[in-house]
Amino acid sequence: MCGRGCWSASYxxxxxxxxxxxxxxxxxxxxxxxxxDDMREVxxxxxxxxxxxxxxxxxxxxxxISSGGKRLRPALLLLVCGALGYGGEQRFNLAxxxxxxxxxxxxxxxxxxxxxxxxxxxxxxxxxxxxxxxxVGDFLYxxxxxxxxxxxxxxxxxxxxxxxxxxxxxxxxxxxNMHDPELDEPAYVQVIRSKTAxxxxxSARLGAVLAKATPQLEQACADYGQALGTAFQVIDDVLDxxxxxxxxxxNLGDDLREGKVTxxxxxxxxxxxxxxxxxxxRAIETGALEELDxxxxxxxETGALEVALQAAAAExxxxxxxANQLPLNHxxxxxxxxxxxxxxxxx
Length: 347
What we know:
By secondary structure, the protein is mostly helical. Helices cover 69% and strands 1% of the residues. It is globular, with a radius of gyration of 20 Å.
């Protein structure tokens, strides 16, 4: 992608340096096995810092944090630290911080979106109610900011404060764009860059800051995180029209029900017939799912899924190019392969 809403050239894996980590190195699971011990340390920090004198706070927090998420953001921070040679304890603390921030956004998102299913089970708001979800989300935000102070580094505070603010702006932009069939690619990209990719970007940048990397390496890490987060969100939007509910752990068609205009719909309206465009427009405006099967068929028939996947591939390529600027080692190579693995993501 170049600038806002301009997708770059096609993904060409032949241009990337790759050497194997394991026999199944193309999978994200194999990549993440490299930091399995580190992630256990992060889990210990999370468990310890969830402690609260209010039982409901701990109950709701543990419910959503233990629900099987991929933990990509803390993993990204740990991989960058490994690639740049930082082995200090702060990597565990800040990895927990970014997971707390992410979890807080999920709690608030599910309330705003009126979601009932996440990661294959009832959302926290479905289980505990909207007030508890919002307030525990606030607790996780504030606990994350308490933990940031442990680093005694204003640069780290600046990165995380900025990221949290941009994420909130992205949420508001998305809310303003709901049920708007006129939304175009640049506006779509602006939302996902803010709402999703910003925390990926911050996680990667934090690893570079901890390692006291040069400004050039820090920027390469930030670019990697932004591109990875953008690709992740585009594929997530594709799966709402191409995935299986049993694998994804959420209800298919949720985006349409909420009036979210994502890249598959934008591409389908651009490539479809007048009747097809009219049908999609009505569904976006009303959030009605009666024609969901028909809309899914249109998205597939028009090649909209391929358009979106190509956009994700372009971002994955940008991420891999950025990772290739890091010192050549297994952690840097894992970053390359993590980006490549997104293109095989099914949930």
